[in-house]
Amino acid sequence: MGLKLKCPGCQSTLQVADSARGKQVKCSSCQTVLRVPAGTPNPQTAKVPTRKAPTPNAAGSAASSLQLRCPSCQTPLKVPSSFAGKVVRCSKCQTQLKVPGGGVPAASSPPAAPAGYTPPSQPSDDPFANLPTPGAPSGGGFGGGLGPSVPQRTLRSPNPVNPYSTPSPSAPRTYQGGNPSRAGRLRSGRSAVLYNIPAIIMMCWAALVIGVGIFQIGLVIFLLASGQVNFQQVDTAQLFGRLAGQFLAVALQGAVLAGGIAMVRRSNLGSAKTAAVITTIPCFGCLVFPIGIWACVLLFSNEAEQDFA
């Protein structure tokens, strides 16, 4: 009568003779060498034992076992509490895992207060009493602290400045960023561009009017001197009136040109005001009339007196 065995490697059933008891045979499928048990066991029930994770006693309580979960196959495992801190193997995927436990951690003591620290005083029940004074900081392990000798004024922020307050015209202006001329700011805090733009437009217009006026005066003198125009046939009053008007326009625009230069250089406030007033007269240039009003608003102010000082 033959003996049936199961190969632990490929789980295939092997049929061996009774005479092979106590000897080693080789699996015909996976070539695994296994030993045939001796004795006379029931050939129908003879099996090779497999090692699995220990299971708790069915009669044991739930407190004497530990619940685990394999990290590889997520199979729930139950091991006795005596295996705490030991390594077991999963019965499904043969992954080794360590049972947690094995010791009770000591209770951690609260950290000690640093040396030299003074706890703050408890507030009193009086609602009108002063606030409690915080404890003085100590040096500790960082090479020293502020200490009680440092005045509290050094720990406070500078005096706050109201961003919506209107500065007084006579108050001194402060500049941040170095020299105010380099930063493009004047003594009053205005930008130099506010003066330069209307001054340049006024100078360009004045130079144009002066050029046209000199050309017209020279042309009339040339025609009269060359004899191309008969002096007796010309209305003398009208001719001299036009020449006088041209001379007046050239003179006034010369004042505008000088005032524009003074406005750019901020050297002569009176000359700059004169140029602005002349420019506001529509008869001397309706195109630059708004520029003259702009210049008057800038020059007839308290800030202009500081900028031209």
UniProtKB/TrEMBL annotation:
UniProt entry keywords in alphabetical sequence = Membrane, Transmembrane, Transmembrane helix
Composition bias type Polar residues, residue spans: 151-179
Region spans: Disordered: 38-60, 99-184
Which species expresses this protein natively? Rhodopirellula sallentina SM41
Task: Provide the transmembrane region boundaries.
Answer: 192-225, 245-264, 276-300
Residue ranges annotated as compositionally biased, kind Gly residues, are: 137-147
Q: Does Iron appear among the keywords?
A: no
Descriptive protein name: Membrane protein containing putative Zinc finger/thioredoxin domain
Renumbered to this chain, the Low complexity biased-composition regions fall at: 105-116
In terms of Gene3D superfamilies, this protein maps to: 2.20.28.160, Zn-binding ribosomal proteins
Entry-linked InterPro entries: Ribosomal_eS27_Zn-bd_dom_sf (IPR023407)
Keyword flag Membrane: yes
